[in-house]
């Protein structure tokens, strides 16, 4: 008789699970002094146990996070200490445009201002969990950009999926030029009141460059009003305000009348003097640098226009080049800078919602570079 012996089976190896990001509510309930990673929306600057500023910020040492960008109850907020390494990038006095944006913070879950908090951060990054920004300086390389598509957008882009370069550009042009509803220039006023509505105040719109929340009723041409900014300057190709590129919501945004005039028809580049009335923006004789929170928005609007308008619909063939001296030619720059900005400032919830509203309610086409930001480098890189 032969006896068989079964070899002992080793127990399964248990791999450590990756650290998951907490919600703000979970962080408030976990004030144990341990380390945690929390994702939430910036809703203000805490100045006392039950006091949070939402404007006219006084410092760069603290911010409040919440699970909703519209939260006003301090009991639903997490107070986050901002140490010196992160103040230049995350302090609200220096970066007021961070309001209502999502960030992810890792640090010690312990009381701050005698309130549920997070202290001594070891990582702070814009957006949800992902790559982190090391303390001391901004990253020198661009963060990885991931697709933000869903099954519904995959259907919309079906004929473009799997393509790259000129083949991708041609496919996208066909997709975003089909079944489009063109608005009148007067119709743009009411549309912008919906597409750019302040998530925290439904009576207001958010101005693109200045980041100010201003009453929807203050649209017009007087000082203190907001008007319709053509991000792809309408003189670059001389399309004016004609239905089509002149009224395309994907590159029209609300902006203060004076700031709009200051930007004029300049190309985009870095540097210059601080723009009056628009903190964080800079300008010189031939270029405009938008604030950090909308640099990617600007780039993706320009890239959309270059794909949407190819000269086959009675308008000029709009293109992006690396110049800031384009005049009335149908080109706008600076390409190298726009590529950097698109990678550094990925689409946020405001930009994604805007794209969806334009698609579902107004023009019935989408900006593909918001849904698939990785397509920017495939076509323009």
Describe this structure in words.
The protein is of the alpha+beta class. The chain has two domains: 24-126, OB fold (Dihydrolipoamide Acetyltransferase, E2P); 151-380, no CATH class. Helices cover 24% and strands 20% of the residues. It contains eleven helices and 17 strands. The strands form five sheets. It has a five-stranded mixed beta barrel with strand order 1-3-4-6-5. Strands 12-15-14-13 form a four-stranded mixed β-sheet, with no helix packed on it. A hairpin with a 6-residue loop joins strand 8 and strand 9. The chain is globular, with a radius of gyration of 23 Å. Keywords: Hydrolase, Nuclease, Signal. Residues 1-27 form the signal peptide. Residues 22-125 form the Endonuclease YhcR N-terminal domain. Pfam families: DUF6359, Endonuclease_1.
Secondary-structure class: alpha+beta
Along the chain, the helix and strand elements come as: HEEEEHEEHHHEEEEEHEEEEHEEHHHH
Overall pLDDT level: 89
User: How far is the N terminus from the C terminus?
Assistant: 73 Å
Strand order of the largest sheet: 1-3-4-6-5
What profile does the largest beta sheet have? 5 strands, mixed, barrel
Tertiary shape: globular
Name the beta content range. Answer: 15-25%
Low-confidence stretches: 1-18, 130-151
The total of beta strands comes to 17
Q: What's the total helix number?
A: 11
What radius of gyration results from the CA coordinates? 23 Å
The tally of structural domains comes to: 2
- The percent range for helix content is 10-25%
